[in-house]
Amino acid sequence: MFAHMTNGTAEFLQKIIDKHPKKHISLMHGESSSLAYYEDKAKSIFNSGREYVILITIGAIQEEGYVVMNNIPVTEEGQPVFEHHFQNRKHEVEKMPGFQAFRLLKPKKGNTYIVFTQWRSVQDFENWKTSDQFKQAHKNPSVKTPDYYADRPFITSYHMVTDEK
């Protein structure tokens, strides 16, 4: 299964969504742009989108919610270690109130993985970040970033847009 996404203005992305009514495309608004996202086994409908292999799927993506994407550039030789880390992680985030969905996305081109989480609200995500479970999941005896990081990770976040909004 693949994840497909592209950025643009809300109006432009809505035209793409309207043109493909059989695809379940989610529209999300962020601080600087909007994002269209869908999952499918077929080739992407986006001309200038990004494609990812979905390595881990937990929960169904909901029509409403808050999406946080941790974008992590990983060196080519570090990819097996990075993927192994996620395959063997404890599943604490799924137990948090407000958790909706999780995806680990491996890029088909490039080196930036996406750790995608969806929450019922911003407050639910903030509660996760201050929880003991978060501290346990992110504890690291070293302050240094892992050697397999190709660059500094960065976060993008979006609010899901429903037809009524």
TrEMBL record:
Keywords linked to the UniProt accession: Monooxygenase, Oxidoreductase
InterPro entries the UniProt entry points to: ABM_dom, Dimeric_a/b-barrel, Heme-degrading_MO
First-level EC class: oxidoreductase
Residue ranges constituting the ABM domain according to the UniProt record: 66-160
Molecular function (Gene Ontology), one example: heme oxygenase (decyclizing) activity
Enzyme Commission numbers on file: 1.14.-.-, 1.14.14.18
Membrane is among the record's keywords: no
Domain of life: Bacteria
The keyword Oxidoreductase is annotated on this UniProt entry: yes
Gene3D superfamilies: 3.30.70.100
Signal peptide per UniProt: none
Record-given protein name: Antibiotic biosynthesis monooxygenase
